[in-house]
Amino acid sequence: MMKVSFAARGEVMKHVEQFVLDTMEDYLKPIDTNWQPSDFLPDSTQDNFFQGIRDLQENAREISYDLMAVLIGDTITEEALPTYESWLTMVEGISKDENQGWMRWVRKWTAEENRHGDLLNKYLYLSGRVNMRQMEVSTQYLIADGFDIGTGHDPYRNFIYTSFQELATNVSHRRVASLAKKAGDSLLSKMCGVIASDEARHAKAYKDFMSEIFRVDPNEAMIAFEDMMRQKIVMPAHFLREVGLKMGQTFGHFTDAAQRLGVYTAVDYVDIMKQLIIDWNIESLNELNETGEKARDYVLQLPNRLLRVAERMKNPSLEYKFSWIAG
Asked: How far is CA 11 from CA 142, 324, 326, in A?
């Protein structure tokens, strides 16, 4: 383990920024050969375009109400990308120079993420299952309302959040892909599968960025990790709402549907925490002061405590009717 003494977060972030610059291509695919939404959807320039739409709609009819609600909620979350990009540009301690590592990463990460919402939105539009205007209103609300995820502009807390959130998004899209395949919609399954693959690479990137911070500033990194776990990681769509509802009122119904289906559950939350503890070698961290040691003890004990709570949770009953789903 490299032992480096940094006087302040700013010096740590200069080191991380160089790491980002040196390793960026390991986590992002070349644009010219990367998949694009049109690779999966009916081609409007071809004679079989309308038959392709009919086939898509026939398969989409087999998607359950809850799964359609989760897919729409996931799509709205992906479509709120402008919020996430602007938030990442405000991280403190990292150069805002367009040619430096961090800003180059943000632009390229955003470019990859932008395909997700485009693809899912077009699928939903063609499916004939969705009240697109209601969905679009919710999307505009979510971008306009922004989010408060408890990280401030602190880079340590931000990288912890993105590590956790990209892992959670991977789980969600992967599970939707599996359920879509079981329902006979192989197209939707493939779409969510490639999106999940992107999220896995992005999660690896942010985890590795954070690993560098743990390597050179373990004590402050450990304290930041404890703080984020005490607050609990909130999802980026936690302000989700529909027409006539207050900010955040729809989010609980969306997560209820995800919990019922097993798309993303309280147990998954605990599993992601366990994975980060392993990936960041929390148990074997050196050079912690008393505060850092207490923070580590708290984090190491937390998964078992939360798992006991998660195992007692009952699946919420199906009651809510989303304005997004036609009919």
From this structure: 35, 47, 53
Residues 35, 110, 118, 242: which is the catalytic one?
A: 35
Q: Which of 77, 109, 185, 202 is catalytic?
A: 202
List all residues 6 or more positions away from 83 whose beta carbon is below 8 Å from its beta carbon: 142, 143, 146, 147, 236
Query: Is 229 domain-assigned?
Result: yes
Q: What is the pLDDT of residue 156?
A: 95
Report the distance separating Cα 280 and Cα 284, nearest Å.
Answer: 9
State yes or no: is 87 an active-site residue.
no
199 is catalytic: yes
Q: What is the CATH number of the domain that holds 172?
A: 1.10.620.20
Task: Give strand pairing partners of 325.
Answer: 130
113 carries an active-site annotation: yes
Per annotation, catalytic residue among 199, 208, 212, 220: 199
Does 86 fall in a domain? yes
Per annotation, catalytic residue among 66, 79, 166, 217: 166
Read off the amino acid at residue 310: A
Summary mean pLDDT of the chain: 93
Domains in the chain: how many in total?
Answer: 1
Query: Domain residues for 150?
Result: 9-26+49-312
Residue 62 falls in the annotated catalytic set = no
Confirm if 280 and 263 have CB atoms less than 8 A apart.
Answer: no
Taking the alpha carbons of 153, 289, 219, 293 in that order, is the dihedral positive or negative?
negative
Mark whether 198 is an active-site residue. yes
Q: Known catalytic residue: 35?
A: yes
Q: What is the pLDDT of residues 155-205, one digit of tens each?
A: 999 999 999 999 999 999 999 999 999 999 999 999 999 999 999 999 999
Assigned domain for 236 exists = yes
Q: What is the pTM of this model?
A: 0.94
Q: How far is CA 281 from CA 81, 284, 296, in A?
A: 31, 6, 11
Q: Is 169 a catalytic residue?
A: yes
Domain presence at residue 15? yes
Considering the candidates 74, 78, 154, 217, report the single residue annotated as catalytic. 78
